Amino acid sequence: MAKSKNNAKKVSCISVPSQKIDSLSSSSLHYLFFSPKKPSANRFFGLKWYRSSRFWFLALFLCGFPGMLKLWYTPDPSVPFSPDPCVTSQSQLQKSFSNRHTRQQLGLVSNDERNGKNDQEVGSVNARELKFEVGFGSNEVKNESLKGAVDFQGRISGGVEEDSEFWKQPDGLGFKPCLKFSGEYSKESELILEDRRKYLLVVVSGGMNQQRNQIVDAVVIARILGAALVVPILQVNVIWGDESEFSDIFDLENFKRVLANDVRIVSSLPSNHVTRRPVVESRTPLHVSPHWIRARYLKRIPWAPADTYWCSGSYLWFILAPQLNREGVLLLRGLDSRLSKDLPSDLQKLRCKVAFHALRFVPPVLELGNKLAERMQRKGPYIALHLRMELDMWVRTGCHPGLNHEYDEIINQERRQRPELLTAKSNMTCHERKLAGLCPLTPLEVARLLKALGAPKSARIYWAGGQPLGGKEALLPLTREFPHFYNKEDLASAGELKPFANKASLMAAIDYLVSEKSDVFMPSHGGNMGHAIQGHRAYAGHKKYITPNKRHMLRYFLNSSLPEAEFIGVMKELHRDSLGQPERRTSKAGRDVTKYPVPECMCRDEHDDRSHE
């Protein structure tokens, strides 16, 4: 009985996932959708294997396999990021990452994908709004309808941001600023303000935040000596070439007004003191006490005649005590960490008064800093990160950023040429420094920590800091995980930043303002800015401040076999008490009151139940 024609033409159908189609070659697509020509019966010795569905499935798999490999893994030779920055060989990097991260997690994308609309002009309001929607490293405007409705204040309601535990602020335990000075302090103020004989000149150095710290101590030293303080001289920064003066950065009139009852502030020496030879001190010991300062500059030490030498630790000091009263002018240089952190209560309060009230930025800086903070707040809460990834930071810490051998050699060459820059322990290897918590966090580590602590992918991040070694390529692991990533150049128009061009101190002041007003702040490495903002946020009510527990957490970062859920649990436990909660300065010796303002500068209502905790 002859077979029917319909039965002779059976068709085998194969279901292929749509996402794999793009990865197939044109030849494989041809074989998939079109039947091949029948070969002659004798060509393959009469075998009928080509009619088997198994054969065509195998052929389809072999044709599509290269495309699927490309979809799953595409090596990007541009920047091989490493979870262990001290490992930089190509084979080691690929082996390390293959166990923990995919290409999408690392954020390895091409320059064309990354640039997109970031190069658009932001001078107009519409362009600026567009850039705010696009963010760093994104190509398209985000669908804001997915994030919840925007209320009249511009905050997101009903979205992930408001409901996330990540944005929850620490319990301030009722602590509020309180700078009530003693009666004895007020009586001494009357005599100090009437004195016209003694004047203190100070030269402060370093970056803007380092200069702030020295100015705070200069005011306290002037109070200890009962001398008038001449407006501090800002030494030209040799790294940035910034020639800004005190009044270019800080509001001088506010500085004088706030301290009017504490120290007499003058803009210059009076005419009868200009020609006098000042007492110059450029090698003050570390952490000196008020007693040391008075004994050295105001009165002769009883057992030591004038113009003799005496030994203190590893230094040799010259007795110049009588000269301040005689000449009336004292010049101090290099005040960084010279004054003790443990002072009488009134002097600690004076430190807080200077840091949190007197040192206010000039109006143009305040205006732009507040404006940029408002732009960040327009779509909800935001994180501020202080990223320390500049070349000099890697050189000073003796660490590597985990980019590649080329950058490591740049760092090593700079370190060989200027060995005095290395501030970390020189007898430790890079890996040992890393595990000891002496290295800045890399962008990959920052991203993993933020994710583990619950930061949503939609979180908006303000990035403060200098240009990272490796450029914006080095930030890819972070910007891929958190695409809403901005700095002041992204938020401000060229015209808004033009008045501050080539003024590193003013740019740092803008970063400070936007960071201080953030909902969450985290530094990648300790430093003057991080310490200052920690104290400022505590004084403002203990706003959330994440202190990375680098010494204990990094070993878990390097453990590729640790399940992600366990990693997240460990990170949350390590940082449970490092989120900006009130912490008493007196719990550890040598703490700065401008970093830990409790209990000298902040107190609680006696009727508050928490005051007895």
Structure description:
- The structure is a single chain.
- The chain is an alpha/beta fold.
- The chain is 41% helix and 9% strand.
- Helix 28 packs antiparallel against helix 29.
- It is elongated, with a radius of gyration of 32 Å.
- The N terminus is likely disordered.
Q: Indicate the percent of residues in helices.
A: 40-55%
Number of strands: 17
Flag low-confidence runs.
1-47, 71-81, 88-163, 301-322
Provide the β-strand percentage band.
5-15%
Structural class: alpha/beta
Radius of gyration from CA coordinates: 32 Å
Q: What is the count of DSSP helices, taking H or I runs of 4+ residues?
A: 29
Q: What is the molecular shape?
A: elongated
Largest sheet: 6 strands, parallel
In short:
With 613 residues, the protein is of the alpha/beta class. The chain has 29 helices and 17 strands.
